[in-house]
Design brief:
By secondary structure, this protein is α+β, with helices and mostly antiparallel strands. The chain has helices at 99-118, 149-155, 162-181, 230-233, 242-258, 265-270, 278-283, 286-295, 307-316, 321-340, 388-391, 494-504; strands at residues 42-43, 47-55, 59-66, 71-78, 85-86, 92-93, 127-133, 136-142, 146-148, 194-197, 202-204, 275-276, 362-363, 413-415, 440-448, 456-459, 466-468, 472-480, 483-485, 511-516, 526-530, 536-538, 543-548. A six-stranded antiparallel β-sheet has the order 1-2-3-4-8-7, with helices on one face.
Length: 566
């Protein structure tokens, strides 16, 4: 057991007991804020309290030392300052009028952190202990070495390419999906609450009780402008849900890829001027643009409803049929409202959003998705700052015919191209298809076929037919073959194996991961799979992959071989 007198209370490293730490600069003469636990305070006769790291409406986080494991930890104390009082002996006193609010939050705190302590999700900061003391509760977290995603971006040019962001975000998305399956929601996803570790992995931090993520609750709301969803501000009396986390995740990914903080949700409700400069829109994969557009819809009923749906759309461009139907209804409502409304001056604030990546500039609107003309891909253009700069070039079909009756009217028609056999995500490539931008595509069915998953196998209008702008073309998309060979994932990392299985056609929920230890096999890699390659499986089959927990350092078994006879 380490002599704790030698530890710096600012970083919990052994600095020989110096009054000013030569590692972090902490001065041992400074005190924690008055309403917090003091340094050198002991909890459970095991945890030494250091300096305060963070204070919010849920409580206080301290750096600490675990005398049981001789390791640095973070200690989270439930202490909502708005309803609780610190006694001189450092216990917590609750006035009678605040007991209901305090106790409700306390139960939520214990329930949340006890569940997290049992979780094996890889992109979480591990909770190692949960206990009650001093009239309140505490959660002890492993001290992950790393920095916030915000700091990481600041140190790396402000943004990342999709190829870089993908490998960071997919494990995080998997973990968030796992939390939702367990009934836990974050409601505070932002670059400030995601940690980028020195191991190169991202982890979800700052999981808190939902009361502090909701402006309608008893505690002061801790929200993140640009990343918190409209329903968290209670502007329309909406409820928090899985879609709330979709908004936070989408907005965070937007910040990572584009390099700017999105406007806050309340201001977007009034006037939505969120946009992506043209060079970003041309570089990003179409399915990423679509996933961002759907995930950042201001109104939750228009937004991607689940993390799993967001992940599928982000990786494969798969949009739930229910969401597409909702979009069509919104389009119809918006068109009817526009038809009956008085004319507005050009640039007066039409709310426009991206549909299936049809724009060089991505504009995420408040109401519904409207088709936007692709503005000259390949031409050099200045970044677009708001929707007003492009609305003037978009013909309004509700105003066609409102011209001098003496002038002959003509309707431009466009030839429908052959999309069958092509990937859905590729039909908006202007170099391959000249006229796709002029049509509205709707996926009406999915079928098993010999074609690759995501391939268009039927289209409602025959190739070569001439139709008007904004004509709907209904598509049937291939689910891939119902029977296919199990891919060989032996030797891959867990992330690589999951991607390979998903691409082959295995359903995400049918991928089961198990731990296995083998010092003779590749560390941290898949060392067994069932069914084995190249056995034939179906889309309904469960695939088990066993990942080697051996890290390269052999376990010390010397103590197991020791006996009194030795």
């Amino acid at each position: 057991m380490l002599n704790t007198d030698r530890l710096c209370r600012g970083c919990m490293t052994d600095n020989g007991g110096e009054s000013i730490c030569d590692i972090c600069g902490y001065d041992s003469a400074q005190n924690n804020p008055e309403n917090c636990l003091p340094t050198d305070f002991w909890l459970q006769d095991r945890y030494l309290v250091g300096k305060v790291l963070d204070v919010n409406s849920e409580g206080v986080t301290y750096i600490g030392w675990d005398n049981g494991s001789d390791s640095v930890v973070h200690i989270r104390e439930y202490f909502p300052g708005a309803v609780a009082v610190r006694n001189p002996d450092r216990t917590v006193f609750i006035p009678d009028e605040n007991k209901f609010a305090y106790n409700g939050g306390l139960m939520d705190f214990l329930s949340l952190n006890r569940l997290l302590s049992k979780s094996e999700l890889t992109a979480l900061v591990p909770v190692t202990d949960v206990f009650e003391e001093n009239g309140t509760a505490y959660a002890v977290f492993a001290a992950v070495s790393g920095i916030s995603l915000q700091d990481f971006l600041d140190k790396n040019g402000g943004s990342l390419k999709w190829e870089q962001a993908r490998s960071l975000f997919l494990p995080l998305i998997d973990t968030l999906a796992g939390l939702h399956e367990a009934g836990v929601h974050h409601y505070g996803i932002s670059p400030e609450t995601i940690i980028v570790g020195r191991d190169g992995k991202m982890r979800l931090g700052s999981l808190s009780i939902s009361k502090i993520r909701d402006a309608a609750q008893d505690f002061e709301a801790l929200l993140y402008p640009g990343y918190s969803a409209l329903e968290q501000y209670k502007e329309k009396g909406l409820n928090l849900s899985e879609a709330t986390d979709v908004y936070g995740l989408s907005s965070t990914l937007f910040r990572v890829l584009i390099g700017t903080v999105p406007p806050d949700a309340v201001s977007r409700l009034e006037k939505d001027n969120l946009s992506i400069p043209s060079h970003f829109a041309q570089e990003l994969p179409r399915q990423v643009l679509v996933a961002l557009a759907n995930g950042m819809q201001v109104l939750p009923e228009n937004r991607t409803a689940s993390i799993e749906a967001f992940r599928n759309e982000l990786v494969y461009g798969e949009t739930a049929e229910a969401e597409r139907v909702a979009v069509q209804k919104n389009n119809a409502s918006l068109a009817e409202a526009h038809k009956n409304a008085p004319k507005k001056k050009k640039g007066s604030g039409a709310l426009i959003a991206l549909i299936a990546g049809l724009c060089t500039v991505l504009v995420i609107g408040v109401g519904a998705f409207l088709g936007i003309k692709l503005l000259g891909i390949g031409e050099e253009k200045e970044p677009v700052e708001s929707v007003s700069s492009i609305t003037s070039s978009i013909p309004d079909k509700n105003e066609v015919g409102e011209i001098d009756s003496d002038v002959a009217q003509t309707v431009t028609k466009y030839e429908v191209e052959n999309y069958m056999g092509k990937l859905y995500s590729g039909i908006f490539d202007s170099e391959k298809f000249e006229n796709s931008e002029f049509f509205k595509f709707t996926i009406v069915d999915y079928e098993f076929s010999a074609k690759e998953k995501g391939t268009i196998i039927k289209q409602s209008i025959n190739p070569g037919q001439q139709v008007e702008r904004d004509t709907e073309i209904q598509l049937t998309i291939s689910l891939g073959p119902k029977e296919f060979k199990a891919p060989d994932v032996i030797g891959m990392t867990l992330e690589e194996a999951k991607i390979a299985l998903l691409k082959q056609g295995v359903l995400y929920n049918n991928i089961k991961v198990e731990d296995m230890y083998d010092e003779d096999k590749t560390p941290n890699a898949v060392i067994e799979q069932e069914p084995k390659y190249p056995n034939t499986i179906t889309i309904d089959d469960v695939v088990i992959i066993r990942v080697n927990t051996y890290t390269g350092e052999k376990e010390d078994t010397s103590s197991e071989n020791y006996t009194e006879d030795n």
